[in-house]
Amino acid sequence: MKYVIGNWKANKNHTESANWIETFQGEFSPNEQVTLVICPPFPFLSLVRNALKGFPQVFIGAQNVSLFEEGSYTGEVTAKTLKEIVSFAIIGHSERRKNFHETDEELTRKVQLAKKYNLEPIYCVRDEKDPIPAGVTFVAYEPVAAIGTGQNEPPEKVIEMKKKMHLPDNCVFIYGGSVNETNISSYLQTGEIDGFLVGKASLDAHQFLAMAKAATK
Ligand code: PGA
Q: Which of 98, 154, 174, 202 can pair with 195 through a Cys bridge, CB separation 3.0 to 4.6 Å?
């Protein structure tokens, strides 16, 4: 099984999300070898989920979960709130580590809360030095220099890093950083990479589906 995970980040409004869904619905062809996870901003999680309910192998993910379980934390979105809407949660993205100063301890807590409410964490690390909390199965290696720059890290380098990392047993190893429909096959050819976390190229439904298609080959 291969995974193609689309992280929309802080992009798209309601109209743009609806357009993306429409294109996806028109062009999606199910394939048992690929699981797709779509991670829109919080306000559109239900929209995307309801529109794509019943599409085989298509799941919804959150881009973050709160550090708090529930209660008086204005503006926070908790794992408990998310659990009926999403199946996955991205945790530890380098943009959150950098811009919101998320620490390893906080990220461990987030993983625990996600697991408590049956969300599968997609845990992002920048290199082998970022510790991976217990209970994580999906590990996304995302070298900072490759994110959003068009400078994807060559597959050989990704595999070198994979060897250095202390990955959990039965790990689903994901690469992220400027993956697109053109370069995705070079990673797949290695047989060492189980999936992709895709930012920019996931914003276009055609491109997202082209990557899904590439992953079936
Ligand atoms: P990118 O983002 O595909 O735009 O490089 C990847 C990510 O940050 O997950």
A: 174
